[in-house]
Amino acid sequence: MAAVVTRHKHFDQEYLSIESKYVVQEYSSSVAEEVKYQHQTQKRIQGVVEKKMPEKHIREESMIRGPKFVVRLRSHTVYENSAIKLFCTVEGYPTPRVKWFKDDVILDVSSGKYFVENNAGFHALSILKCATDDTAMYTAVASNSHGQASSQASIIVKRCKEEETPTPYSWMSSQYSVLPEIKYTKININFTETFDVTFGKEGDKATLTCKMTVNPNMANLQPEAMWFRDEHLLKESRWVKMESGGGVAKLTLTQLAKDDEGLYTLRMVTKGGDAVHRAYVFVDDGPPPVPQAPGAPMDIKIHDANRDYVIVSWKPPNTTTEGPIIGYFVDRCEVGTESWMQCNDSPVKNCKYAVQGLLEGHSYYFRVRAVNSHGIGRPSRMSEAIAALDPTEFERIRAKKLGGRLDVVTYYDDLEAEGKAPGPPSKVCASETDRTYVVLSWVPPVYHSKAPMWYYIEKLQVGAGSWQKVNTKVPIRSPRYAVFDLLEGKDYQFRVVSANMYGVSEPSEPTDTVTTLQLKGVPSAPGQVIATRETDTSVLIQWEPPQDPNNLIGYYIDSCVKGSKAWTSANHKPHKQTRFVVHGLTTGETYVFRVQAINEHGLSDESQESAPLSVRAALKLPSSPYDISLLYCDGESMVLNWKQPLRSGGTDVTDYYIDKCNVATKTWKEVNVPPIKERLHKAGGLTAGSVYQFRAYGANLIGLGDVSTPSAPFKCEAWTMPEPGPAYDVISTEVRDDSVVVEWKAPVYNGASAITGYFVEKSKKGSDNWSKVNESSVNHCYLKVKGLETGESCVFRVRAENANGIGVASTPSDPVCIKALPGTQEIKCGVDEESGDIYLSFESCQMAEKSKFVWKKSYQEITDFSKGIAVKTSGSHSTLLFKNPDKEDLGTYSVSVTLTDGVSASYKISAEELEKMLALSYDIRNPIIPLKTQLAYKILERGRVRFWLQAEAITSAVTYKFFASNKELVNCEQTKMSRDAATGIIEMVMDHFTDDSEGTFTVQIQDGRGKAQSSLVLIGDAFKAALAEAEYQRKEYIRVKEGPHFMEFLSIQVGDNASVTLVCKVANLKKDSVFQWYKDNVKVISEVPADLNSGVCKFPLINFSKKDVGLYKATITDDRGQDVSQIDVSGKAFDDIINKLSRLAGSSASELSIQCTAEGIMLQCHMKYYTEEMKIHWKQKDSKIAASERMRIGGNPAMATLEIVEPTDKDKGMYTIEIVDPEKTNSRSLDLSGQLYDNAYAEFQRLKAEAYAEKNRGKVVGGLPDVATIMEKKTLSLTCTVCGDPKPLVSWSKNDREVEPGDQYVIAMDSGKFASLTIKGVSLEDSGKYTMTVQNKYGGESVDIVVSVYKHGDRVPDIKPTPSPKRIMPPTVPIVIPTAKPATPAPAAAKSPAPPQNAKSSAPPRGMKSPTPSRKK
Fold first, then answer.
1. 460 contact partners, CB below 8 Å, separation of at least 6
2. Which residues of the chain have a pLDDT value below 50?
3. Which run of H or of E encompasses 1132?
4. Are 159 and 79 within 8 A, CB to CB?
5. What's the whole-model pTM score?
6. Phi, psi for 42 (deg, rounded to 5)
7. Which residues, 6 or more positions from 800, have their beta carbon under 8 angstroms from its beta carbon?
8. Residue 244 forms beta bridges with which residues?
9. Which of 28, 173, 802, 963 could tie 753 with a disulfide, CB 3.0–4.6 Å?
């Protein structure tokens, strides 16, 4: 050992020089000076910027997206063979990638020596066993698309600690020998309280708190709390507040938004490592301003901020319970104000929008609102403030060091002489391409002039025109700019021109052809979704990504209880990975899951639903058995028992395996190969006199659990003692606040005589003092121990007794706390109100997936169910039913629930209680509704007959049926039935009692389980007497009392012409009799007046359809009284009418004909009547056609139609219409192919071309008066708005002669849509008719304006305008429709709440003077 020490004391020169190099660099003061100077320089530059932009709000942070080290690497000095860990924290967007270097050489992490970690912006490099050659400078380089950053630290590896000299740096040169030794203190952090998964709603406040212990807790070395959300470091803001200190770290989200949803990580950082805790925060949508409106968008980002525009992007909300999103509105608010202004007039469909027209130097906030068919949803959280600035503003500032620490700040523009035009830019390229804009960037020319330089951009649509300037009004100063208003899917080239006050450069080289993007649509649906168990309230969801991601943003996950359609959102912020843990589920409930992919165009179709999964904790391996005990030994074998594992792993432990070990040989061997099913086993093949130990394993559905600790040593000697052996399986059940039931099993060894009883002993947990619970023995294997103290922990053991004495004590039970489980229920005894069965019912307060209810009688499990005993279990509820109970069923019944914390209860059925329940059971099984009176009849006025009976008591849920000669009667006008639950009377009034009414009348009643029946026989003389009385009453009523009445009640007639009419007939009328119609108790007027002379009244239902469904009523009234008839046109009656109309339509249907439109080819079938409620099917080649945007199925009352929109060759074939009624199906067919298709297609194309030309021809939108009066020597400006595609040509004429532009006549066209004619210094000769003609290749129109000039001082002439019609001009060339771009059909745009800028023209009324529009500067 001495030789080794001597060898290591002599350090070689190379080692010393390497170590000194890194120590000196780490602690050199010159580096600090340089950093300090750079900071002062940056501070001076910032001061110049603040002076240049007074009172402007500038936020640079939102434009910085490059990597940044939040926590930098720190240097370490360690000893040989020890472990070291360098760590740092990096932020940036996109998330930076970090590479590690050793002395500027990239590390080979595949060697196994170095281990790299990367989690939530935290990066670490670990060396498990340091050697002296690990002394080096280590560098972490972070990079993303916006740049890179680096951090360095040195590692100095020293020799063994005992070889240290008293002066650690004595080997260094004298100038550095004063450096102290670097020592680090290991700080341990243990979380004592953490935050769990949190659920909130938009607008709420949420606080995440962690409490911890810090050891050692030193004031100058407190850990740093760092909070992350989805791997992004959080900073203090108006939305996020952080507190740390005193063993508590707290994060407060002041006003929740869906941007706050995500995985939150708390990292407590110390020099020796870190402690981490993380949990998910879910944020649900807040209440919408309009019901069913969409949720708020999120993650508002600002891109390409420039002098007058920014590009805003966002992520769409989930729409599980709302309708699909139509589009979005983008709002802006200038910093310092509270006024939000809408930026777009109509909803934008993509999740990106370029906001133009910003004021340079002003700062803005932005937010986004989503729109669907129900309205506009909540706004998103507003963005960070962004300044509309030239991005090169700061690049043109420089600081020059003059000497010492003095410097001066200047602009590059001020460096050299002026007077020269700039050179052309170079390397023009498209750095970003979208559907309607392209972001260009270029390299500025070498420029040395005081005169400011700017740029012009020119574009060229390939194959369509010449170069055009893009920015004619806004000079561009930065070498990056976005060109807007481009067409989708078109090819463009761009070039840039430099300019200053002295001239313009030559154009740059044009870019390569740039093709704008086309709307590709949403991603395809995700693939298979798999749900697996996580915890008892969460499920892990995994899925396959979509085959066509199409710029995928993330995923939304939905959950639904199996069997329902109530889908709910699991996350409200797009999740990027293909696995997600859904929290907040109900334990035991069964769910299905689905996933939707999302991009800037919206949400994909839903994936297929996952297989149903019940929410339970994931199954695990069982823990080890324990307390192996010896129950009997015969000298060759031992009977063993053990306790089941404390943790079963969520399912039953079904198998056990035993090992034995001869203490002398210390070799473990298997006792059994086949698994043991019971916890009792006889281990044979033992040697008498030897000492053995045993151990056990438990196995469940998952696999084999841990092995138990070895048993106590057991000597293999035959038992011959006269007392009994030990009882076993001593357990505590039915734990309450002051009692517990102790159960056990009888000993395997009885001793020299039979067992006569048992004693139970009690001890406090941890004590060796045992006391008897029962003074006299009990002869059964259970005992209820009472009088215990709440909260104390006890253990119990049992001793058996025979004639020879008290035997060996059993193995003690597990400790039990004398306190009832929360929510503990007791067994309920009763009689089922429906079946009459006597039952014992129990509901468990705890349940696992594999839990079972074990019912016992006298604490012996019930296994014989042949005597009418049955067990029904549903969820956490179990019932023991007695189908035919008798005295043998008396006794104590108990129930226990497996895989719980000891849930159990018992109930004793006494003889007196059983007798009462048997009597109640009989009454329930044989219920009879007692009747006060049997069925009887009474003759009423008008000869009507009332059949009635009265029950002792009935409920409002009673049901009844009347029969006449075994034929059931229905409740209608002729036989009105009713019941009165208060009096118990049930009656039927028969309106027409005639000869056909002879027979037996019966009523059947059912109220719950109770039933009753009563009959009345009206046959022979009894019937004749009743009939005679009815006839007498009828005649007497007509003679004395009868007023107007219905001879024929309301009925429905369907005519051969497909007309539907309600008809009735009234009689016994007077002049003042009034007939009225009602629908749903609202008075209506028939188109056919009531004919009271004939008594026939009709109410036609014109164009019968669903609108006519309702309850119709007719009344006839005069001073003698009123009669009413009503009919319900709904349900079966409505279906019968539709069937009759279908029969008429089918028989009258004409052959199919063709009618072409500007949208497609329409097939028509004329018939007597058509309504959409008819069962009419359209087929193509025997395949049923479903209504869609391309196949429009409809019609009008005279025909049924099928319109094929934009037909293609696939639409050729045989078309058939089928008109279905219950008796027959009528069909008509047409072969749409060959010449017939070609002719129809040509006609469609012609109509389409005409419609296209009409839409795009040159038009005068508005703004011109019919008459303009003006005083001479004034200036007249005639201005109007024109439109057309392509942009139309405008010409002016006076009195049919073309106006030539000159000094007096100025003709202008502004922005391609504002045409004007300006006449300077008008004179009397300028009076006349002026004509403006607007025309392009698709045609145009012309309008006339009468100009009247009067002299100064004259009265203004009163000329009444005579409106002249516009003259339409036909197309000048054959109409060619451009090829349509493939695109997903867009939903109709929602109306914007802000007035559109291109709404109704603001032109003055015809006949007034036209104002001169102001020119935009």
1. 466, 467, 468, 492, 493, 494, 510
2. 1-37, 49, 52-64, 161-182, 402-406, 414-417, 1039-1040, 1383-1417
3. helix 1132-1148
4. yes
5. 0.45
6. -60, -35
7. 724, 725, 726, 727, 746, 747, 750, 755, 757, 758, 806, 807
8. 249
9. 802
